[in-house]
Design a protein that fits this description.
Blueprint (H helix, E strand, L loop, with lengths): L1 H46 L1 H12 E6 L6 E2 L5 E13 L7 H12 L3 H14 L5 E4 L4 H10 L6 E10 L7 H4 L1 E4 L2 H6 L8 E5 H5 L1 H5 L3 E6 L15 E4 L7 E3 L3 H11 L4 E6 L6 E7 L13 H7 L21 H10 L8 E4 L2 E4 L2 E4 L6 E4 H6 L3 H8 L4 H10 L21 H8 L5 H8 L9 H12 L3 E2 L5 E4 L2 E2 L6 E2 L4 H16 L14 E7 L9 E8 L6 E7 L5 H18 L2 H20 L1 H17 L6
Parallel strand pairs: 2-10
Antiparallel strand pairs: 1-8, 2-3, 3-4, 3-5, 6-7, 8-9, 10-18, 11-12, 11-23, 13-16, 14-15, 17-20, 18-19, 21-22, 22-23
Helix pairs in contact: 3-4, 3-5, 10-20, 12-15, 12-19, 14-17
Length: 635
């Protein structure tokens, strides 16, 4: 018994002796594991804290654009023409797109857009692979927002975000000049890799030409998102700006908004255009084309009704101010100057006018059958076609073309807009090339009165008359005056060489047009206006003629030149000329110091003329009697 107990005690002692190293080893292992765990925790929670914090933020935030405000556009007096407004846009995250076909089906009723159109947008967005949002619908209304909120659980990767859209306070009044902004097209994206799908860019007008300066640089911000990737409420999660947006540069243009409104109202519901410019600088003061359109419609989805309206048969998107039309009799000052410079007539020439002339078996009629012996000033004042036919009989088309081109016809004006026609001043080579026919004398007769092949835009007409009024200083037309802090100097005028005594006859004739001829509707009280009316035949056959009036004022020191064109408006003197008068009245009501200076100059000139009148009286009488008996030298 005792022996047995001793044996057991010895066995236990041996067992404890055998387990002691193992226990020690186990403790060491446990200590090592705990140490490794603590080390790992230190590594993760202390040394790698920033890294994993950023990873967590990445998983709960999304990078999105901060749209740069587009630069405002102002008129010359600081009136706002184009600006921005807050809006909402629907976006998708391309990197999160999965089943685009199903998503397109679910989005179609929300946006009320055709499935193929939405599918195409989603496919393009997914192909971009961008982690940044892509806009699929801009300026969404509250109805779309409401439908989206109802279905957002079934619209993965889709959200509605604050955005900026373009706004045009004066809509139709400035549409053709400013143009409009719209979502970037695929063709534009292909040309501009620095742009993104969904970007808003200038698509026409000044907005397009100065897009790079107006656009600015977009910023970036991070917004908190929930488990579905949708943005959380700003009240609970404030966005973190990582890159501040830089606004586009403001642009000041030469337009006078008040004058623009008067011109727009003057045209009324007629189709046509009015252009006014400063003859001394070439700054365009007004440019109106009617019918017009509302450029604000391009900032949002275009509905079928809006699409039908902007594509109406009267072509509201068509800028008539930059389109060529037969000028009719407003072309006659060019013909007369060409005849004088080519010595077909001289300042003392008188022409026998009648109801027209016959040539080659054809009768070329005058607009009136009144007969008489007219000097050149009176021929222009009363727009006698038969007088210009007689000049044309001794001229070539190249002679007329030369002087038309010198004053700006047959070429663009310099204005910063797309789709400007250069018009047309034909010659013999042009007809042979385009019609495979030789040039006939009858073609020159038509050309002399601005008919048949001759085409002039209203903008060209304003420039031509500015150049005539400035005595051969033809201005380059332009809109931009200032971009950001940079002043834009006007282009230098082109100088036309001419004989002063010849141009004086033409200028006197245009003064007489308003003082006693066909342009009397624009006569102002204390400002002398010089100009020319025009009525141009145009298809369809039997329709009313186009009505024209072009002028400048004051006649001796022009500060404004105007061209009025009314499509199928009838007679220029009764339709177009009256439209120019309110523009002139408005312009000079804002320029009283200049009016007073002109009045003082006229008073001084009148006083000087009166002092020498008695000395020259008998000689003037003899000259007048001699002039009445002088016959034509045209032939």
């Amino acid at each position: 018994m005792i022996v047995q107990e001793a044996a057991n005690s010895a066995a236990e002692a041996n067992l404890h002796r055998d387990l002691r190293p193992k226990v020690a080893m186990m403790c060491v292992l446990i200590a090592l594991c705990m140490g490794a765990l603590i080390a790992r925790l230190v590594f993760l929670q202390i040394l790698q804290f920033d890294y994993y914090k950023n990873q967590a933020i990445e998983n709960s935030t999304r990078v999105t654009f901060m749209r740069a405000p587009r630069g405002n556009i102002y008129d010359r007096y600081g009136n706002l023409l184009a600006t921005n407004k807050e809006s909402l846009s629907m976006i998708v995250i391309p990197a999160q797109l999965d089943d685009v076909k199903q998503l397109a089906k679910d989005l179609s009723p929300v946006l009320e857009s055709p499935y193929p159109k939405i599918l195409d947008l989603l496919i393009k967005a997914k192909a971009s692979g961008s982690v940044l949002p892509v806009v699929i619908e801009r300026d969404v209304d509250m109805a779309i927002v409401s439908r989206f909120l109802e279905h957002k659980l079934f619209l993965p990767a889709v959200d509605i975000m604050p955005d900026i859209s373009r706004s045009y306070p004066h809509a139709e009044i400035t549409a053709h000049m400013l143009g409009y902004c719209g979502q970037i097209t695929q063709a534009q994206l292909d040309r501009r890799p620095d742009r993104h799908m969904g970007d808003i860019v200038g698509q026409d007008g000044i907005e397009r030409l100065y897009d790079n300066q107006l656009r600015g640089v977009d910023g970036e911000q991070r917004v908190r998102v929930n488990a579905m990737g949708l943005s959380q409420s700003p009240e609970t999660s404030k966005p973190v700006i990582t890159k501040q947006a830089t606004a586009g540069k403001p642009l000041v243009v030469s337009i006078d908004l008040d004058l623009q409104k008067v011109a727009y109202d003057a045209l009324g519901d007629r189709s046509g255009a009015i252009v006014a410019c400063d003859p001394q600088t070439g700054e365009i003061l007004a440019m109106v084309s009617r019918p017009s359109f509302d450029p604000n419609v391009f900032t949002r989805k275009i509905t079928p009704d809006v699409w039908k309206k902007i594509n109406a048969p009267n072509h509201p998107l068509f800028n008539r101010a930059l389109s060529g039309f037969p000028p009719g009799s407003i072309w006659k000052p060019i013909t007369m100057l060409a005849a004088l410079e080519n010595h077909v007539v001289n300042p003392d020439t008188k022409l026998q006018v009648s109801g027209g002339i016959s040539l080659g078996g054809f009768f070329f009629g005058d607009w009136t059958r009144t007969s008489g012996l007219f000097d050149l000033v009176k021929c222009l004042a009363w727009s006698r076609d038969s007088a210009f036919y007689q000049m044309a009989l001794h001229m070539t088309p190249e002679m007329i073309k030369e002087w038309g081109q010198k004053f700006g016809a047959n070429r663009t004006t310099g204005v910063e807009l797309r789709h400007e026609s250069k018009g047309l001043v034909p010659d013999s080579a042009w007809k042979l090339l385009n019609y495979h026919e030789k040039w006939y004398p009858g073609n020159t007769l038509h050309m002399s009165i601005g008919q048949t092949y001759v085409q002039v835009t209203p903008t060209q007409a304003a420039r031509i008359y500015a150049g005539l009024g400035m005595k051969g200083q033809v201005p380059g037309l332009h809109f931009a005056m200032k971009i950001g802090d940079r002043q834009i100097p006007p282009p230098k005028p082109e100088k036309v060489k001419y004989h002063p005594e010849f141009l004086k006859v033409v200028l006197d004739g245009m003064k007489a047009v308003v003082a006693s001829g066909t342009g009397g509707a624009t006569k102002l009280g204390n400002v002398e206006v010089a100009g020319k009316t025009g009525s141009a035949e145009a298809p369809p056959v039997g329709s009313k003629t186009h009505a024209w009036f072009a002028c400048y004022a004051p006649a001796d020191r022009p500060r404004i030149a105007i061209a009025v064109f009314v499509e199928h408006g009838g007679h220029g003197g009764s339709t177009a000329a009256p439209m120019a008068k309110p523009i002139l009245e408005k312009f000079f009501s804002m320029s009283k110091p200049e009016l007073e200076a002109d009045a003082e100059k006229k008073a001084a000139d009148a006083k000087s003329a009166k002092s020498v009148k008695s000395a020259k009286g008998s000689k003037s009488a003899r000259n007048a009697r001699s002039a009445k008996t002088k016959t034509s030298a045209a032939h």
